[in-house]
């Protein structure tokens, strides 16, 4: 199944929570920390009207302005939000959130 966002929605895929350290030690499953980590996700698809506030009107027509996200970006979003959907073919889990749920864009230093 292919999934694409519509309207002002964004499809994301939660990052996997590590269960072992790099050295192979099994980490304790603290549910509170797991939920906080789950609020970090990779952007899969962005709807055509997401971040409409970044768009402008020129000569009476709406012009796409700068959208702060693109597919592949990593974001932090409001925890406990959105709708979880499961791809029936391969079991991948996605979450559909709104553009207002995006809290931050994660950049790599350097």
Explain what this protein looks like in three dimensions.
The protein is mostly beta strands. It is built from one helix and eight strands. The strands form two sheets. Strands 6-7-1-2-5-8 form a six-stranded antiparallel beta sheet. The protein has a two-stranded antiparallel sheet with strand order 3-4. A hairpin with a 2-residue loop joins strand 3 (56-58) and strand 4. The longest helix is centred in the first third of the chain and has 8 residues, at 31-38. The N and C termini lie far apart (36 Å).
Query: How many β-strands, per DSSP?
Result: 8
Shape: elongated
* The named CATH superfamily: GroES chaperonin
Catalogue the unreliable spans: none
Number of helices: 1
- Give the domain tally: 1
Measured distance between first and last alpha carbons = 36 Å
- Top-tier CATH class: Mainly Beta
* CATH fold title: 10 Kd Chaperonin, Protein Cpn10, Chain O
Q: In what order do the strands lie side by side in the largest sheet?
A: 6-7-1-2-5-8
Query: What string, H for helix and E for strand, traces the elements in order?
Result: EHEEEEEEE
- Estimated share of beta-strand residues: 25-35%
Describe, in short, the structure shown.
With 110 residues, the protein is mainly β. It has a single domain, classed as GroES chaperonin (10 Kd Chaperonin, Protein Cpn10, Chain O), CATH 2.30.33.
């Amino acid at each position: 199944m292919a999934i694409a966002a519509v309207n002002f929605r964004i499809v994301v895929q939660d990052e996997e929570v590590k269960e072992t350290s790099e050295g192979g030690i099994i980490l304790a499953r603290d549910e509170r920390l797991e939920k906080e980590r789950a609020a970090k996700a990779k952007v899969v698809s962005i709807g055509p009207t997401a971040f409409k506030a970044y768009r402008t009107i020129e000569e009476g027509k709406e012009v796409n302005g700068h959208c702060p996200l693109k597919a592949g970006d990593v974001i932090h979003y409001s925890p406990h939000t959105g709708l979880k959907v499961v791809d029936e073919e391969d079991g991948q889990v996605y979450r559909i959130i709104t553009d207002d749920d995006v809290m931050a864009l994660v950049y790599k230093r350097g």
